[in-house]
Write a structure and sequence with these properties.
single chain; 608 residues; alpha/beta; Glutamine Phosphoribosylpyrophosphate, subunit 1, domain 1; Rossmann fold; eight-stranded antiparallel sheet; six-stranded antiparallel sheet; 18 helices; globular; binds 5-amino-5-deoxy-1-O-phosphono-D-mannitol
């Protein structure tokens, strides 16, 4: 989604801003621009399309200056063109604004400003901010921004510069992430730490309702009453290598191949082998408190919602606590039955998804205790949840989530072990699960070592127009996730279903053109699934089966088989996901898709 970078310091700003924008490319965008204080005023350069086009424009006509702001836009109001690209500039040309989020009362404000003689050039809601800040400006930029924001409804992360109150960036946040990066005699503003990681690891995260005033001499954080707020400086432990491709053709492939390591990282120091349980320091709950909840609600979006479905299955099976899984976007506007006896688990790779954050806040408002299962350290959900489990998967840059998904499943299993052992789960079962968890990274490596087989399969199916993914039990969410991966990056229409539901409708789609991927490892529902495979074969569907052993029941019934190592049912979703990630990846590459930045998608969806 949209990205913001700003710089104040002794260095020439443009290359630093463009470099920062490139680090944010993965978030998804459709235009980009910069505004630099060039000594004479604010100079703005912006362009539709890739950052490379902006870079070429800047190379042809360099802009000099040591203070500037930059933006990648993901269109919400108005098409992705040069006029709608940010920064937006005030009528008098002295103020430039970049903005993430949505100004909900933009229409009303626009009418008011037009009435006062302001001219609008773009279709965006952001332009309202530029004119409004000009209207409120009386020589001091932060006062003008505060005054303008008091009139604004909606969400924003903004960075603003003015040629009248120069060499200063004012940045403010409500609902859209923003941080200040602290360098040596230089300061950055960014919506995502990746943008500035090459220059500093010291950051201050803004909370909603806070504003940063940054100049060459330092920074101040104030609230919208201009009262100073004391903030903690956080240290980022990601390194630059983790946000680079490191020899892989795409970030997605790198991230798929990192999974043996990322799963180790999720488990590190948390498994208590002898006791058959897990140690989770960040829950901020005593054992008695954990035992006191009547029910658990898990809320999330997209891939994280799929991991939630697996978590539901695990927790109910091993702890017997009732669990409900809800799309965060639905949960936030329902009247859910959630109270102080509910534990609400919120799952989000980015920790910034707007719907998930809103759902968490709604659960809190109703008295529930909240736990975040989050990847990005210091993200809003991580900071606002009452406790949580970091998945420690490292930066995930590919828009299609892969390593975060498998780590989320493992984090949910750690939680299940902890709660299960406090309840009825036997020490022996706990130990068996842990033994299987220890084997997992090596088993994933075995699958990755055979990626060429999946690549060959992708060649065979790259021209398909539709795909069905079917699974049962723990592997039904894997079917959903396999289908989501394929459609996101290859643009092939794909659906995931519980295998037995097929005969209630989707079976009508099956003919010799329809590839059907069955997630069919040897688990407790294998025999049932084998019958579903027969039903597809009887209608000439082309069956790709993910299996785990030689099954007589499948002899002659499947067109392609990929065998994964054997494990316990609980962990099958992790192993079975890997070949499906690879299948989606290789098909997308063979179809010429932009795998890491698929069309229309953003890595982190920070608007509703
Ligand atoms: O950062 P989050 O986990 O909250 O993101 C949720 C979804 O937007 C995300 O999983 C999305 O579905 C991915 N593109 C899936 O690959």
């Amino acid at each position: 989604m949209c990205g913001i970078v700003g710089y104040v310091g002794p260095r020439v700003a443009t290359p630093l801003l463009v470099e920062g924008l490139k680090r944010l490319e993965y978030r998804g965008y459709d235009s980009a621009g910069v505004a630099i204080m060039n000594g004479a005023g604010v100079e703005t350069v912006k362009e539709a399309g890739k950052i490379s086009r902006l870079e070429a424009m800047l190379a042809a006509n360099p802009v000099h200056g040591t203070t500037g702001i930059a933006h990648t836009r993901w269109a919400t109001h108005g098409p992705p063109n040069q006029v709608n690209a940010h920064p937006h500039v005030s009528d008098d040309g002295t103020i430039a604004v970049v903005h993430n989020g949505i100004i909900e009362n933009a229409t009303v404000l626009k009418k008011m400003l037009e009435g006062r003689g302001y001219t609008f050039r773009s279709d965006t809601d952001t332009e309202v901010l530029a004119h409004l800040i000009e209207e409120c400006f009386d020589g001091n930029l932060e006062d003008a921004v505060i005054e303008a924001l008091r009139q604004v409804e909606g969400t924003y992360g903004i960075a603003v510069v003015s040629s009248v109150d120069a060499h200063k960036i004012v940045a403010a946040r409500k609902g859209s992430p923003l941080l200040v990066g602290l360098g040596d005699d230089e300061y950055f503003v960014a919506s995502d730490v990746s943008a500035i990681l090459a220059h500093t690891r010291k950051v201050v995260y803004l909370d909603d309702g806070e504003m940063a005033v940054v100049d060459r001499n330092g920074y101040r954080i104030v609230d919208l009453n201009a009262m100073e707020v004391q903030k903690k400086v956080s240290r980022i432990d990601w390194d630059l290598g983790q946000i680079e491709r490191g020899g892989f053709a795409h970030f997605m492939l790198k991230e798929i191949f990192e999974q043996p390591q990322t799963l180790e990282n999720t488990m590190r120091g948390r498994l208590l082998d002898d006791d058959g349980t897990a140690k989770l320091g960040g829950l901020n709950l005593t054992d008695d408190e954990l035992l006191a909840f009547d029910n658990i609600v898990i809320t999330a979006c997209g891939t994280s919602w799929h991991s939630a479905l697996i978590g539901e299955h695990m927790i109910e099976e091993l702890t017997r606590v009732p669990v409900e899984v809800e799309y965060a976007s639905e949960f936030r506007y329902r009247n859910p039955i959630v109270n102080e006896r509910t534990l609400c688990i919120v799952i989000s790779q980015s920790g910034e998804t707007a719907d998930t954050l809103a759902a968490m806040r709604e659960a809190k408002r109703r008295g529930a205790r909240t736990l975040g299962i989050v990847n990005v350290v210091g993200s809003t959900i991580a900071r606002e949840a009452d406790g949580g489990i970091y998945i420690h998967a490292g930066p995930e840059i590919g828009v299609a989530s892969t390593k975060a998904f498998t780590s989320q499943v493992i984090a949910l299993l750690l939680f299940t072990l902890k709660l299960g052992r406090l309840r009825d789960l036997s020490i022996l079962t706990g130990r068996e699960i842990i033994e299987a968890m220890h084997r997992l990274p090596g088993q994933i490596q075995q699958i990755l070592d055979r990626s060429a087989e999946i690549e060959a399969l992708a060649e065979e199916f790259k021209r398909a127009s539709n795909f069905l993914y079917l699974g049962r039990g723990y592997n039904f969410p894997v079917a959903l996730e396999g289908a989501l991966k394929l459609k996101e990056i290859s643009y092939i229409h794909a659906e995931g279903y519980p295998a037995a539901e097929m005969k209630h409708g989707p079976i009508a789609l099956i003919d010799e053109m329809m590839p059907v991927v069955f997630i069919a490892p040897h688990d407790s529902v294998f025999d049932k699934l084998a019958s579903n495979i027969q039903e597809v074969k009887a209608r000439k569907g082309r069956v790709i089966a993910i299996t785990s052993r030689d099954e007589e029941a499948l002899a002659g019934k499947v067109d392609y088989e990929f065998r994964i190592p054997e494990t316990i049912d609980l962990l099958m979703p992790v192993l079975a996901s890997v070949p499906l990630q690879l299948l989606a990846y290789y098909i997308a590459v063979k179809r010429g898709s932009n795998v890491d930045q698929p069309r229309n998608l953003a890595k982190s969806v920070t608007v509703e």
